[in-house]
Amino acid sequence: MLDFKQSLDEQKNKADGGVLKAKLSQSIKKHMFSSIQNTQDPKALSIQMHIDAQMEIFSKRLGELFPNMQDRDIYRAKTNVWAIFVLQSLFQGCIDITPSALGFSALYPLTDTLIDDPAIDGATKKIFFKTFYEKITTGFPSARSLYDLNIPETLKPVFIDIWNAFDLIEFQYDRTAHPK
User: Fold this and answer.
1) Which of 24, 45, 72, 81 could form a disulfide bond with 105, CB atoms 3.0-4.6 angstroms apart?
2) Secondary structure of the chain in the HEC alphabet?
3) Which residue has the higher pLDDT, 73 or 139?
């Protein structure tokens, strides 16, 4: 059986221009998961069991915080938080569902769905980019002020969810204490 590094190198060599395509990325993830699941190391098994338990809690919390988020988007958020949990276990020794882990993981499916939706017109997407850029760079506008934006009413809850996800990150990492 190939070790993980060797498998990763082989997958990179197969990719066009060194960029992993979706299929190859899935293959790598599958190899990582099977390597973890097939291990007999009690510590690794304990970590994986703890991650699995935290993933269930994460899914429930995400659904509570973002009730409009679809199951497929919760799954996409879980792919982000899984990596966060693994890094936490490596560097901190503990796995915790932090506000920033929730917010960061939710941002990907929330923004991706908004940006990739062909039914949303370019003008609305420009409003999103402009206001989200302001939010990231200044901390404003607040989610409450989004009700005043000239966007379709059906999209206002999506914008608000994105703002709330970003606010979860800033709750843990206040911009005045972490200016860069």
Assistant:
1) 81
2) CCCHHHHHHHHHHHCHHHCCCHHHHHHHHHHHHHHHHCCCCHHHHHHHHHHHHHHHHHHHHHHHHCCCCCHHHHHHHHHHHHHHHHHHHHHCCCCCCCHHHHHHHHHHHHHHHHHHCCCCCHHHHHHHHHHHHHHHHHCCCCHHHHHHCCCCHHHHHHHHHHHHHHHHHHHHCCCCCCCC
3) 73
Between CA 31 and CA 26 the distance in angstroms is: 9
Is 6's pLDDT higher than 80?
no
Angle between helices 156-172 and 122-138 (to 10 degrees): 20
Plot region of 2 (φ>0 → left; ψ -120 to 50 → alpha; else → beta): beta
Tokens 């932090």 -> residue: 98
The CA distance from 164 to 152, in Å, is 19
Its pTM stands at: 0.73
Mean pLDDT of the chain, nearest integer: 82
Rounded CA gap, 135 and 122, in Å?
Answer: 20
Report yes or no: 58 and 97 within 8 Å, Cβ to Cβ: yes
